[in-house]
Amino acid sequence: MSVNAAVRKPFDPRDPLGIDDLLSPEDLAVRNTMRQWAADRVLPHIAEWYERGELPVISELTRELGAIGALGMSLTGYGCAGASAVQYGLACLELEAADSGIRSLVSVQGSLAMYAIHRFGSEEQRQRWLPGMAAGEIIGCFGLTEPDHGSDPAGMRTFAKRDGTDWVLTGRKMWITNGSVAGVAVVWAQTDAGIRGFVVPTDSPGFSAPEITHKWSLRASVTSELIFDEVRLPADAVLPEAEGLRGPLSCLSHARYGIVWGSLGAARTSFESALDYARTREQFGRPIGGFQLTQAKLADMAVELHKGLLLAHHLGLRMDAGSLRPEQVSFGKLNNVREAIEICRTARTILGANGISLEYPVMRHATNLESVLTYEGTVEMHQLVLGKALTGLDAFR
Predict the structure, then answer these.
(1) Longest pairwise C-alpha distance within the chain
(2) Which of 110, 126, 351, 383 has a CA 20 to 30 Å removed from the CA of 141?
(3) How far apart are CA 118 and CA 265, in angstroms?
(4) For the Acyl-CoA dehydrogenase/oxidase N-terminal domain, which residue ranges apply (predicted)?
(5) Cα distance between residue 58 and residue 71, in whole Å
(6) Catalytic one among 96, 146, 376, 380?
(7) pLDDT at 3
(8) Of the candidates 336, 332, 345, the residue with the CA atom closest to the CA atom of residue 305
(9) What is the distance between the alpha carbons of residues 380 and 9, in angstroms, rounded to a whole number?
(10) Domain with CATH 2.40.110.10 in the chain
(11) Residue-by-residue pLDDT tens, the chain, 397 positions
(12) Local structure of residue 72 (DSSP, 8 states)
């Protein structure tokens, strides 16, 4: 027997390419911690939360996530874990394997609100907010999208005007994760000097955050409108290092990176559900996994899922090396979310009528990914980002 044959591992249907071999012991420890937490605290309840359209224990879950280092985990200092980009990606994967709403909670907290304060805030702002946010004692939200301005944030109408040394903030933001439970909001607004970011305590007079209901996607997630009715802020509420769209777009790029991994968590759960079902569900006297068409579906799903994981890992290594470009994040978000939702839809066909039941996770993941497909940049916007990078020609305007 050759040396290569002696060390060759058995084929693993859940890791057909041996991607786990690319992960360090520390990577695997982070992944296993997040997987176990999700199994203990989310999976027993998520179908009920989704059906009811609420996340009733969000404050409790946020504190638990803080305790295991999941909030702002790729940031350093201020109580943050200082994890690698690959480890943060693995955490997003495991959280979204439970539900996209849970990963969204973590992404908005860490990659948007905390990242904005950490990257663009003053030392006083960091000291005031980040330790409590890292511990999950303070929930944050990120206000960029408006009712009439989603893909074109430059057209935002929320405005902050000077009044002496203060700022007075007026306007609305829409589709804001964590909005009605947040203690602090990072809000982007037009000013006479261009777009600026503001750190807004949510107990400020004139601030309100009515929750958005009647959603058929991300139902186990808090989604709100933010309303600013002449909210008065002190001069030091401004993020001093962020001017123009560079600030919010860099935050979005960081959050999109988490989605590159997270979306594959939803896909993995749906694929594994379909695989298990195909092995046990019998029609015409034998398991449906023995039929050619079912095997073709499973093979195609496995190929796209694990190609996406290789892409996510590659982008994570580039982020850890400091060489990841925004266009490459768009590449990952475009491919992985698009393939993830197709995997969920294909898995649903294997489960047949059972695929629409909340007794199985597939339809829940598929409907959640309809939101993930849109937020943090639609398919069309990421196609245009790549189109501009490839041709050197701007098709946005």
Answers:
(1) 82
(2) 383
(3) 27
(4) 25-137
(5) 14
(6) 376
(7) 54
(8) 336
(9) 41
(10) 140-244
(11) 455 555 788 999 999 999 999 999 999 999 999 999 999 999 999 999 999 999 999 999 999 999 999 999 999 999 999 999 999 999 999 999 999 999 999 999 999 999 999 999 999 999 999 999 999 999 999 999 999 887 888 889 999 999 999 999 999 999 999 999 999 999 999 999 999 999 999 999 999 999 999 999 999 999 999 999 999 999 999 999 999 999 999 999 999 999 999 999 999 999 999 999 999 999 999 999 999 999 999 999 999 999 999 999 999 999 999 999 999 999 999 999 999 999 999 999 999 999 999 999 999 999 999 999 999 889 999 999 999 999 999 997 7
(12) T
DSSP string for residues in 334-388: HHHHHHHHHHHHHHHHHHGGGGGSTTSSHHHHHHHHHHHHHTTS-HHHHHHHHHH
The model's pTM: 0.95
Tell me the CATH architecture of domain 11-134: Orthogonal Bundle (1.10)
Beta-strand ranges (E) seen in the chain are 140-143, 159-163, 166-177, 184-191, 194-201, 207-208, 223-233, 238-243, 282-283, 286-287
- Measured CA to CA in angstroms, residue 353 lies from 75, 146, 364 at distances of 44, 38, 14
CA separation (Å) from 312 to 47, 85, 96, 261, 271? 28, 10, 14, 6, 18
The answer to whether the CB of 333 falls within 8 A of the CB of 68 is no
Q: In the annotation, is 376 catalytic?
A: yes
Instruction: Name beta bridge partners: 208.
Output: 227
Centre a 10 Å sphere on the Cβ of residue 323 and count the other Cβ atoms it contains: 9
CATH code 1.10.540.10 region(s) in the chain = 11-134
Fold classification of 140-244 (topology level): Butyryl-CoA Dehydrogenase, subunit A; domain 2 (2.40.110)
Fold entry, domain 247-391: Butyryl-CoA Dehydrogenase, subunit A; domain 3 (1.20.140)
